[in-house]
Design a protein that fits this description.
- By secondary structure, the protein is mainly α.
- The protein has one domain.
- It is built from ten helices and three strands; from the N terminus they run αααβααββααααα.
- It has a three-stranded antiparallel β-sheet with strand order 1-3-2.
- Strand 2 and strand 3 form a beta hairpin.
- Helix 3 packs across helix 5, helix 4 packs across helix 5 and helix 8 packs antiparallel against helix 9.
- The chain starts with a helix and ends with a helix.
């Protein structure tokens, strides 16, 4: 996805986009055991232009293959391995990708950034399982002590915006349709 389609605002080439990548990525006990190709794909996912602050975005494997010059089969195999390691969640049907620790390292620390995150998440393809995981990860990563009040309030904001519809409401909705 491009920036301007996510926020409906034109992108500004003079304003760089950046995401925090922890320098201990390379010395992490789990990452240290990965083959180089797995490390490369993980680092690509952390730094790709398709990524969002919240780490929840659409990324077709074909884009990855084109960007890093790998055959599509290799990309898909590595995505499965990264998912098995707990680094990401990936839905092949919708191409939705969730970087599980994205909010651990960078939280939405202002009202405007939170609004942008909400808008982006609303525009994602429907996947209740990944959305539920995203909400749970926001609670884990944003409620830590020492974070800003905005970051700590983010999980509650997400819950209000994306609260799953109860079974009663689903049943009524089915009857109305």
């Amino acid at each position: 996805m491009l920036d301007n389609t996510e926020t409906n605002k034109p992108t500004r080439p003079d304003v760089p986009r950046y995401f925090r990548v922890a320098c201990h990525f390379w010395s992490d006990e789990k990452v240290a055991t990965w083959p180089d190709s797995q490390k490369l794909l993980a680092l690509y996912l952390l730094t790709t232009k398709h990524r969002t602050l919240e780490g929840y975005f659409v990324l077709p494997p074909q884009y990855i293959a084109a960007d890093i010059g790998w055959p599509l089969r290799r990309v898909k195999d590595m995505l499965v391995k990264l998912e098995g390691e707990g680094f990401i969640r990936f839905d092949e049907k919708t191409n939705l990708l969730l970087i599980r620790n994205a909010l651990r390292y960078q939280q939405p620390d202002s009202k405007n950034v939170q609004k942008a995150v909400i808008a982006r998440v609303r525009n994602l393809p429907e996947n209740l399982e990944l959305l539920t995981d995203f909400l749970a990860l926001a609670r884990v990563h944003c409620l830590r002590t020492g974070l800003s009040p905005y970051a700590q309030g983010f999980p509650a904001l997400l819950e209000r915006e994306f609260r799953p519809v109860s079974n009663d409401r689903q049943e009524v909705a089915r009857m109305v349709v």
